[in-house]
Please model this.
Amino acid sequence: MLRRLLLSLGILALPLLAHAQTLVPIISGPEDIAVGRTIVLEGSLNKATDSTVQYRWYILGKTQPISETVEAVYTPERPGTLIFRLVVTMPQPGGGKMTSEVTHAVNVYVRKITLVADATVPADKLTVHRQVAADAGVFLRVLQPSPSTSPLSDEEALAALLSEQNDALLGANVIVFWTEGIAGLQSLLRAVQGSDTLLAGIHSQTIVLITDRSLNTLARTARGPYSVLKPEQIMLTRKEAIDTLLTSASVDQFVQEINRRDIEHVSINASTAGLRPWNLLSSLVNAMLTKGVPSQTVILLLVLPVIAMILAILKQVIGITTFGLYTPSIIALSFLALGWKLGVLFLLLILFMGYATRMLMKRWRLLYIPKVAIILTVVSFTLLLLMGLSASFGITFSRETIFILLIMSTLSESFMNLKTEEGWRSAIIGVIETILASLLCVFIVQWAVFQSIVLAYPELILLTIVIDVILGRWTGLRLVEYVRFKEVFRHLQEE
Model:
């Protein structure tokens, strides 16, 4: 009698309603599996329950349950998509039962190919390849991260994606990487670290790299990752070969077909992957890559001598005025890490905040060193706010980028010194020429062919020392000086 009265007043109805609304069944298990392999699915609820809960598992199209326990075990006999339905029944305190259900799709395949594409690959092309694979009876699992704002974060995004969805790699006959350079291989190296299951599975798989770069040059760089992953083979080819791979019954048939169609390809296997120990820098770079060091980090280290050489040519031969050699080198590295548009914006904001802080402290009559410390503090807080603002727009920065930004915060001091010594005009000209010189370096070292050659043949970096020695013996006039002193040359010719 009392219970009915409480229910009529709504005192017990709200808890029961909240209880009903929070009952959500959950299915955990694989999303794809090969024909003849056993599927094990496990059911659970989003809250703790007692033993009175009843579970019933169905396959879509069948009326008889395949299991009435918390687990369902099933072995598919033919390829296709199986829809499992879990119905959960729970008795209610007031009598009656509450029922809820959820479905789970499992792709059953004879042949599985995993395609890992970076954010630059158009979605419509991936859709076309999915359709080709479906028509050929091949299960194509596509992984693609969200677009990245920084070149350095592309590889990290791929590595995070492969770590989160490593089940996509298990059971695949072929893993295809449609990425920039060897970023896909590097991300795979980082994803398999600490996972013996993944690494053991890769030993029986073929890895295909899709690229528009020089195959032989890229193959030289891919030998390092091969020595760790040790797949059946790593094949480098063009994007025209993707559909042929999807429609071929085996890797051997795929190789025969692309040979028949004259599609360029290079294969790396146990007989061709030996590293040459007499190439010291090549061995060092390959060792770094195989230990999981990001290829973009290695590129930053290798291109720094090239950037310094380019700046030396600009200053010694052409005669531009920059904030020394160290400053534009750091700016060029920051542009590489951030992207040049965002890098220019950050640089201008750093210079503006440094100048504004110095103007505000002008009346304080502080000594020089403490004044610079305050300027750097304000600039650091400015960078912190900018990074927080960028994060709200989905722009994140790697550790390398943050380190470069902190170094770039010291540039406001160089600008202030030049403005004090030579005035506004010289300071602004110095900033403009420094930015232009840095952008020129960025556009050169970002060239995909250049990066491939640097990774494959790092010994070529030693040539920068030879060029720097030649520049050190330069005794002629700079090109700017021919324009600057043209009146003097004209008078000398008249005399």
Residues 1-21 have pLDDT under 50 and may be disordered. DSSP finds 21 helices and 13 strands in the chain.
